[in-house]
Amino acid sequence: MSRERAINLLLAGLLLSVPLAALALGELFYITLATRMAILALAAVGLNFALGLGGLVSFGHAAFFGIGGYVAGIFSSHAFNQTPLFSWPFEFFGSDQMPAIWLAAMLISALIALPIGAISLRTAGVYFIMITLAFAQMIYYFAISWPAYGGEDGLSIVVRNGFPGVNTAVPLIFFLVCYVLLLAALALFALVRDSRFGAALQAGRQNETRLAAVGIAPFRIRLAAFTISAAITGLAGALLADLNRFVSPSMLSWQMSGELIVLIILGGTGRLFGPVAGAMLFVLFEFVLGGLTERWQFFLGLILLGVVLFARGGLIGVLAGKARHG
Amino acid sequence: MSTALIIEQLLNGLQFGVMLFLMAAGLTLIFGVMGLINLAHGSFYMIGAFACAAVAAATGSFWLGLAASLAAAAAAGALVELAVIRRLYDRDHLDQVLATFALILIFSEGTRWLFGSFPLYLDIPQVLSGAVDLPGGARYQLYRLAIIGVGVLVALGLYYLIARTRLGMRIRAGQSDREMIAALGVDIGTLYTMVFALGAALAGLAGALVGALQSVQVGMGEPVLILAFVVIVIGGIGSIKGALVGAVLVGLTDTLGRFLLPKLFAAFLGPSEGATVGAALASMLIYIVMALILAFRPKGLFPATA
């Protein structure tokens, strides 16, 4: 077993043991903290499909995160108030069941990612970073100025949405739901990374001209990766909305996009468990620094700067040594 | 809708565009010469505004405040370049995004630490207060006209600096081949610091000028920064001319969109619904324009040929 794999198992075990220990000690707050870690990790695993495998630095993934959140909020508010979300071609009253919400969140995120990706992927490098940012801003301003679902004030979810057969209002159960989804997304990531599609995607990151020379158009596989990436981040958004029982335009903000990138880099770029390590570290910083000082963002900034300048490869890079290939 | 109102909105758009140009010129210069994407540019805008407000409040002079804003932003720029940015030139864009994102956190929280969470206010200087008569019966705030004037002067000054001076020649040379001018004996490190400080000073100037129109507060830089990104993407990254055209285009589109679209949709959908749809669409308009331009010209309107 390689050192990285051992660290991955350790991280997965650690994340699972936090809420179990919290339950044993009766400190339920820590379960919420661990759930937040799992959800942010899931969002970052989504982004990692585009950023880690494809080298596509999307600075607009908050758009999909927020869209997922709003799907959860809008579906459950219609289901709660029994008002139709739309009445043509059939009457649809939303849903307060997680599987339906997840499916919708992933589908809608993917459908919105398709045109955004199709335009953004015509460009590369800095242009790509800025265009994805601009598209996310567009959706952000739309959410702020559209009053139907709370506008700037956001939208509350009165009762956490349900999952058939279990009671999601119990913190540990909701954590386990998120944790299983995270593991599923990680498995999908590993599967895609080692598939032909994943190989082409990574080849495109390393050398676009060579990829084109073997007869594979980089644009189409990148668009596919961008769309998958958006769908998974959207799923995470729906979960976060259910955790907070609240969704607001701040989930769509550019800071959120920045944070998602931060999670990946903090954990280690191009690593399977990079987003997990990053999310755990980030939530931990937020919690510990936030408890020590009101100015925790100042110190978070210093830590991030230190990681970029001196600890390339992030947490997993420091623990497991250099990655085998770029 | 009277002509006077339309002239007023056009001028507002132009003033907004000029302000965006001051931001975008620095960003595009820094990217063109150093190949660096700098998210912390909005922080220099904020630093300029805070320096101006603090010095103006202490001395009672807006002009001293303006000088302080230039000095503070340039100093902050030079300091950041020497301490951090310098290490990022040969890194990929991802590292640059992240490091400058960290700088935003540090600057924003640091400013909140120094000045508190409450916004500061900056008064328009006495000489420039009041309004002037324009043809068509419009009256327009003199101060906003002065901002347009400053923008035009800065654009001319930048053109002169880059096209006609030795420093400008070096900047252009740095844009096209940095190894070569280093080999010719130009101290490239100093050149980079100067360009970075110049860009920061322009952003600080913009912040100080706008600070007198809005409140001066933490986080004021980032919305403007994102618009400045849109501007340089539309204009073509690295091109000052593109930044000017893009800034005016974005300024006018945004201002006129917010003014006209609600009225336009109100005519079709009725006043309240129309105003809502129009306002929502207007807030997205510049991004739609940007997407359209990039769909046809992925390198912007004036791609820099480097």
TrEMBL record, chain A:
In the UniProt record, does the keyword Phosphoprotein occur?
A: no
Q: Name one Pfam family in it.
A: BPD_transp_2
- Top-level lineage group: Bacteria
Annotated GO MF terms? branched-chain amino acid transmembrane transporter activity
Q: Name one GO cellular component term.
A: plasma membrane
Q: Is the NADP keyword given for this protein?
A: no
**Subcellular location as annotated:** Cell membrane
Q: What are the protein's UniProt keywords?
A: Cell membrane, Membrane, Transmembrane, Transmembrane helix
Topology term for the membrane: Multi-pass membrane protein
Membrane-spanning ranges: 34-55, 62-80, 100-119, 126-149, 169-192, 223-241, 261-285, 297-320
* Main location per the UniProt record: membrane
| PANTHER family the record matches | ABC TRANSPORTER ATP-BINDING PROTEIN, HIGH-AFFINITY BRANCHED-CHAIN AMINO ACID TRANSPORT SYSTEM PERMEASE
Q: In its UniProt entry, what is this protein called?
A: Branched-chain amino acid ABC transporter permease
Q: Which organism is it from?
A: Allomesorhizobium camelthorni
Automatic annotation (TrEMBL), chain B:
Q: Which Pfam families match?
A: BPD_transp_2 (PF02653)
Can you tell which superkingdom this protein's organism belongs to?
Bacteria
- Asked whether the keyword Iron is assigned, the reply is no
Q: Which InterPro entries match?
A: ABC_transp_permease, BCAA_transport_permease
What GO annotations for molecular function exist for this entry? transmembrane transporter activity
| Cellular component GO terms, alphabetical | plasma membrane
GO BP of this protein: amino acid transport
> Its membrane topology, per UniProt?
Multi-pass membrane protein
Compartments reported by the entry: Cell membrane
Residues crossing the lipid bilayer are: 16-37, 44-64, 70-89, 101-122, 142-162, 183-213, 225-253, 274-296
Keywords of the record: Amino-acid transport, Cell membrane, Membrane, Transmembrane, Transmembrane helix, Transport
The similarity comment for this entry is: Belongs to the binding-protein-dependent transport system permease family. LivHM subfamily.
Give the protein's recorded name: Branched-chain amino acid ABC transporter permease
Lineage of producing organism: Bacteria, Pseudomonadati, Pseudomonadota, Alphaproteobacteria, Hyphomicrobiales
